[in-house]
């Protein structure tokens, strides 16, 4: 069968390093360094890049070249408060001469217009490297809510001509959003019934009145119109005000805004891929894990019933996140959220680590933070699967019981593409620690002892997971040939939570894991 | 007295693209087949390609595959489909 494919040109532009860039009309580049940035006004990646370019422009020469008309360009520069000069590429002549493929396209020019560096798309490390090359401090921080990198859009001169009405693009990337509208509920109507019918999901909510939102906003210093993130899959602007409205509906105390703002940034981190998590037919829901001093400051539960209905903090933070994902992100459970069976975590899924009962380093420390730093982690998670082990007395025996549950993550025969969170009960953690084991030993033991017997694949060529056996690694577990379940020990995350009585741990399976699916993210609070 | 609320729903304007007009014929057209990389997608698209060529006499077929079904198509994938007359996307298993 004949196949036709066109090879995608990987190179960003035809201008190589060392070549001389075409002259830019009306602009004398002189012999100083200058960064030329081509952009489109409705390109989300271009808008994402502007605040960083603004920062760079405070100490270096940045010149913006807009591929759009004057009105759109003016709106763009006003919305994003650009501090560098911007000129239009009339007729896209310059774009053709620079021969770009994508925007944003960045050209760092040196003396005589020599190209020192070029890049297309958004990349924090590239922006920081350019800043250093231009003798400036780095401009992009790791945990500012923006992805590390993001591909751009097709350059305007390569776009096909399209018919139809052109609606104004969403102001993606602007620092300020539109003020939320006010809604007047007539006094003949029950306000709770009105809110239940109009907002949220299938649970009643607290009406987001002006007074309640004012109290919520009193706990933060950022402007109410600031856009914290754009929430997938519909990319609604989560302004501070909209987040506060959903926090009110969920029953949060105003101090919870401290956690909610970084939480909304983190959930929209492209590594988590909440776009996919919220639209998949799988069970996944974002599980929030809270660590550090904030647990006790705001009353997060981490002892008995850590996963359930014991504390206002866990319940309302988890609920607020879900309302934000539905109301601002647009993943309605009767619409874009296509989960076949759903997950009770879609009402609320938030736990804290029982650090006091964790004999090893806390979960967020393992993720790169200081013990005294509060942090939140998000994991695209199935519901917890309980593991009871009340009679085992050694680390090996306890972990063996957990490994049998781990083998069933995603589906029994599927290996390598998935991860798991093991929530150790304090009693199990103590049994393992008492024998002198560190957390990494426990993880390594689980990795080496979790597998699926090769015989499980016999006579099952069509079963899910069977098609990929050529990629699986065969190991011996207790003398039996098995395929190793996980890709590496790091695929198994371990935390400690729950009451101090009861030898019940939990295994929580992931959604599709890794860069091709969802990656766990941890943000400071 | 009426109660005033702040609208908690997204009010971000959405850019709506109108669907293109239906092709009067597939004869002589170029058709893109986008495999989102779910298991079984290639079976469906292989059969579809045969039908498009044999029954509808399309001029050519452009086959592309997303690197993962879990994320939106990257710009490079969309670029490969630019210029075709129609696209069929095989969504699921």
Q: What descriptive keywords fit this protein?
A:
heterodimer; A: 525 residues; alpha+beta; Glutaredoxin; 5-stranded mixed β-sheet; 4-stranded mixed β-sheet; 26% helix; 19% strand; disordered N terminus; B: 93 residues; alpha/beta; 3-stranded parallel β-sheet; 23% strand
User: Please, how many helices of chain A?
Assistant: 15
Uncertain segments of chain A are: 1-13, 161-173
The radius of gyration computed from the alpha-carbon positions of chain B, rounded to a whole number of angstroms, is 19 Å
Roughly what fraction of the amino acids of chain A lie in strands? 15-25%
Fraction in helix of chain B: 10-25%
Shape of chain A: globular
Structural class of chain B: alpha/beta
Number of strands of chain A: 23
> Terminal Cα separation of chain A, in Å?
56 Å
Structure description:
The complex is a heterodimer of chains A (525) and B (93). Chain A has 15 helices and 23 strands. Chain A has 525 residues and is an alpha+beta fold. Among the domains of chain A are: 34-158, Glutaredoxin, CATH 3.40.30.10; 176-282 and 294-348, no CATH class. Chain A has a five-stranded mixed beta sheet. In chain A, strands 14-13-15-23 form a four-stranded mixed beta sheet. A four-stranded mixed beta sheet of chain A has the order 16-22-17-21. In chain A, a hairpin with a 5-residue loop joins strand 5 (105-109) and strand 6 (115-120). Chain B is α/β, with parallel strands linked by helices. Chain B has a domain at 30-90. Chain B contains two helices and four strands. In chain B, strands 3-2-4 form a three-stranded parallel beta sheet, with helices on both faces. In chain B, helix 1 links the parallel strand 2 (30-35) and strand 3. The interface between A and B is large, with 70 and 42 residues.
Write a concise synopsis of the structure shown.
The complex is a heterodimer of chains A (525) and B (93). Chain A is of the alpha+beta class.
């Amino acid at each position: 069968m004949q196949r036709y494919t066109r090879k995608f040109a990987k190179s960003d532009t035809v201008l190589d390093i060392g070549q001389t860039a075409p002259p830019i009309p009306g602009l004398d580049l002189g012999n100083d360094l200058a960064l030329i940035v081509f952009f489109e006004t409705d390109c989300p990646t271009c808008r994402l890049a502007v605040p960083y370019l603004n920062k760079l422009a405070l100490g270096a020469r940045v010149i913006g070249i807009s591929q759009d008309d004057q009105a759109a360009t003016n709106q763009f520069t006003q919305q994003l408060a650009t501090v560098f000069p911007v000129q239009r590429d009339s007729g896209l002549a310059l774009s053709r001469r620079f021969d770009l493929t994508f925007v944003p396209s960045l050209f760092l020019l040196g003396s005589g217009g020599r190209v020192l560096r070029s890049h297309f798309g958004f990349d924090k490390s590239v922006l920081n490297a350019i800043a250093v090359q231009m003798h400036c401090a780095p401009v992009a921080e790791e945990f500012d809510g923006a992805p590390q990198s993001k591909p751009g859009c097709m350059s305007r001169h390569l776009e096909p001509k399209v018919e139809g009405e052109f609606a104004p693009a969403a102001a993606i990337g602007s620092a300020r959003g539109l003020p939320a509208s006010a809604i007047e509920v007539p006094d003949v109507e029950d306000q709770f019934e009105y809110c239940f019918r109009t907002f949220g999901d299938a649970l009643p909510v607290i009406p987001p009145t002006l007074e309640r939102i004012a109290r919520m906003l009193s706990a933060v210093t950022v402007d109410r119109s600031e856009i914290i993130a754009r929430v997938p899959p519909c990319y609604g602007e989560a302004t501070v005000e909209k987040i506060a409205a959903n926090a009110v509906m969920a029953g949060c105390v105003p101090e919870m805004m401290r956690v909610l703002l970084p939480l909304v940034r983190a959930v929209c981190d492209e590594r988590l891929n909440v776009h996919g998590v919220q639209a998949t037919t799988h069970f996944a829901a974002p599980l929030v894990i809270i660590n550090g001093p904030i647990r006790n400051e705001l009353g997060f539960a981490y002892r008995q019933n850590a996963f359930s209905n014991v504390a206002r903090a866990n319940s309302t933070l988890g609920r607020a996140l879900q309302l934000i994902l539905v109301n601002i992100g647009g993943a309605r459970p009767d619409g874009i959220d296509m989960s076949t069976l759903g997950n009770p975590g879609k009402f609320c899924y938030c736990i804290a680590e029982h650090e006091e009962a964790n004999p090893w380093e806390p979960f967020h420390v393992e993720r790169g933070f200081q013990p005294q730093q509060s942090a939140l982690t998000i994991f695209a998670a199935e519901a917890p699967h309980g593991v009871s082990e009340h009679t085992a007395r050694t680390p090996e025996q306890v972990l063996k019981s957990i490994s049998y549950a781990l083998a069933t993550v995603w589906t029994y025969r599927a290996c390598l593409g998935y991860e798991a969170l093991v929530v150790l009960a304090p009693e199990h953690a103590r049994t393992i620690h008492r024998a002198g084991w560190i957390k990494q030993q426990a993880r390594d033991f689980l990795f080496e002892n979790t597998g699926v017997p090769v015989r499980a694949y016999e006579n099952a060529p069509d079963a899910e997971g069977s098609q990929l056996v050529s990629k699986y690694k065969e190991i011996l577990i207790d003398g039996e040939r098995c395929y190793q379940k996980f890709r590496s020990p790091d695929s198994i995350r371990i935390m400690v939570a729950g009451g101090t009585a009861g030898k019940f741990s939990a295994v929580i399976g992931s959604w599709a894991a890794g860069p091709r699916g969802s990656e766990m993210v941890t943000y400071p609070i | 007295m009426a109660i005033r609320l702040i609208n908690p729903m997204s009010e971000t304007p959405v850019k709506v693209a109108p669907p293109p007009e239906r092709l009067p014929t597939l004869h002589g057209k170029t058709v893109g087949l986008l495999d989102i990389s779910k298991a079984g997608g290639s079976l469906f698209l292989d059969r579809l390609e045969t039908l498009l060529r044999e029954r509808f006499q399309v001029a050519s077929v452009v086959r592309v595959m997303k690197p993962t079904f879990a994320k939106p198509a990257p710009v490079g994938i969309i670029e490969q489909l630019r210029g075709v007359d129609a696209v069929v996307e095989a969504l699921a298993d």
